[in-house]
Amino acid sequence: MTILVPAKSVLRGISTLVTVDKQSSTPLYRQIYDSYRARILSRELPAGQLVPSSRELARELRVSRLPVLNAYAQLVAEGYFESRVGSGTFVAHLIPKSPTAPLSAVVVAGASRQGRSISALAAALPTYEAPYWADNLGPFQVGQPAIDEFPLQLWSRLVSRCSRHLQSSALRYGSPMGLAELRDAIANYLRTSRGLRCEAGQIMIVSGSQQALDISTRVLLNSGARVWVEEPGYWLVHHVLTGAGCRAIPVPVDTDGINVEAGIKLCRAARAAFVAPSHQFPLGVTMSASRRLQLLNWAHSVGAWIVEDDYDSEYRYDSMPIASLQGLDDNARVIYIGTFSKVLFPSLRIGYVVIPTDLVERFAALRQSMDMCPSAENQRVVAEFIRGGHFARHIRRMRIIYADRRRVLIEELERAFGDLCTIVGTEAGMHTTIVMRGSLKDQDIAVKAMQRKLLVSPLSLAYLGSASHQGFVLGFGNTQAAQIPEGVRLLKECLAG
Ligand SMILES: Cc1ncc(COP(=O)(O)O)c(C=O)c1O
């Protein structure tokens, strides 16, 4: 029931209605408060207007006086009402007159941006689309580890053990660099398994590689800086650079990795190069030793930075993992980024940056300005996972599983496509890429495949400039070997027309 109470007598000719619905689950005081607030914001109730006394309004609404008193107290506390002793309660003068009608939350959500200014950098970012990571989009989703093989029980035990031993001192803000025990464990791991030259003090824990890319960009680069990116390359590197106002210079990737000579011809004076030398995304190539040295020499000679994204190099199938570029660098020009998204699971949101010693303080200052410090809970669990030897065991076990999935995928692709495609980047990681011969348009095929609930990522989308190859990036991390033949068969059908 809605009771409409014309409060005209007190409002001196202004027809204002305060409405309450006694059946509603919204408390009465809140309805009265909302009703007044809306009328004040819409200027139906002008500043200086006397409002009915709480007793009078309660009588007219046929409610007790308590909800009215509560609503009035809230409106006074928030500055919508002013109470003058001996004179009554008035609509406050303080509310600045808005140039347009006030927008409700709903209208704001749906508003067009026209005439409502936002930063040029935010406007320049490509349209955000809800992530496609869903179960029913087939076997080739990129970037997904085998979550069904994750040792969930063990993880839950560590989570409960860590929370059982939680002390109140652990509830404080932490260091922007992260938890000391995790930084120690990572430094150890990187020195022994990835050939890095680093101390725990150089390691910052971040919320995945993505935050590491963002922080590194903000610390190292000014808006307008020109930056080498691999062509084709990782789309979210492009977004970070766009968001920071940097100019990405696409430098072609060949079988040895980024072509440094081509980069020098295109823009010798670039301020940085963003590369994934162990397992380039999406072509999967490993940067050769001579290219690594060439890249380091270039960076040293022009004073540029190298951002090394080492996102999935733990999984290498025919040799030991490739040593990092950072380990070769004598001039502290490399910022090394790693993540647990692939080796553990992506929702964990824990990654790390290895920072040259002289920049650690600037990285810490920037990180503090962003989000103070990483959340402590999961850091503790990851540290336990590494220290208990589970991490090394997990990687060994997963490498065998992925190797099998990769073998089946390659066999099926060779059988289905033969000479029609070249399979690249199979030495490492959890995806492989096929480069198609002929004149097909990979984006058209991907649309067709999507209609059949098969997600394939078109290679051409990974180019900033015009795509020199058409093909597909096929993830196999979260795909059981038995699902692969059917996925390849479907893809073949989509290619056939
Ligand atoms: C090239 C590349 N870098 C980094 C990542 C990992 O990102 P994050 O650590 O933010 O989950 C991915 C994930 O797919 C990737 O493809």
What compounds sit in this structure?
Answer: pyridoxal-5'-phosphate
Number of domains: 3
User: What is the subunit organization of this protein?
Assistant: single chain
Helix tally equals: 16
CATH topology of the largest domain: Aspartate Aminotransferase, domain 2
Describe this structure in words.
By secondary structure, the protein is α+β, with helices and mostly antiparallel strands. The N and C termini lie far apart (61 Å). The chain has an 8-stranded mixed sheet with strand order 6-13-12-11-10-7-8-9, sandwiched between helices. It has a 4-stranded antiparallel sheet with strand order 14-15-17-16, with helices on one face. The chain has a 3-stranded antiparallel sheet with strand order 3-5-4. β7, α9 and β8 form a beta-alpha-beta unit. The protein contains 16 helices and 17 strands. α1 (28-41) crosses α3, α8 (208-220) packs parallel to α9 (235-243) and α8 crosses α12 (360-371). It has 3 domains: 10-91, Arc Repressor Mutant, subunit A (Orthogonal Bundle), CATH 1.10.10.10; 150-392, Aspartate Aminotransferase, domain 2; 395-496, Aspartate Aminotransferase, domain 1 (Alpha-Beta Complex). The structure holds pyridoxal-5'-phosphate (PLP). Residues 143, 208-210, 234, 276, 281, 309, 311, 339, 341, 346, 351 line the site of pyridoxal-5'-phosphate.
Describe the secondary structure blueprint for this structure.
Elements: E1 2-6, E2 17-21, H1 28-41, E3 50-51, H2 54-61, H3 65-77, E4 81-84, E5 88-91, H4 105-110, H5 120-124, H6 152-164, H7 180-193, E6 203-206, H8 208-220, E7 226-231, H9 235-243, E8 247-254, E9 257-258, H10 260-267, E10 272-275, H11 289-302, E11 305-309, E12 334-339, E13 351-354, H12 360-371, H13 376-387, H14 390-417, E14 421-424, E15 431-436, H15 442-451, E16 457-458, E17 470-475, H16 484-496
Helix pairs in contact: 1-3, 2-3, 6-13, 7-13, 8-9, 8-12, 14-16, 15-16
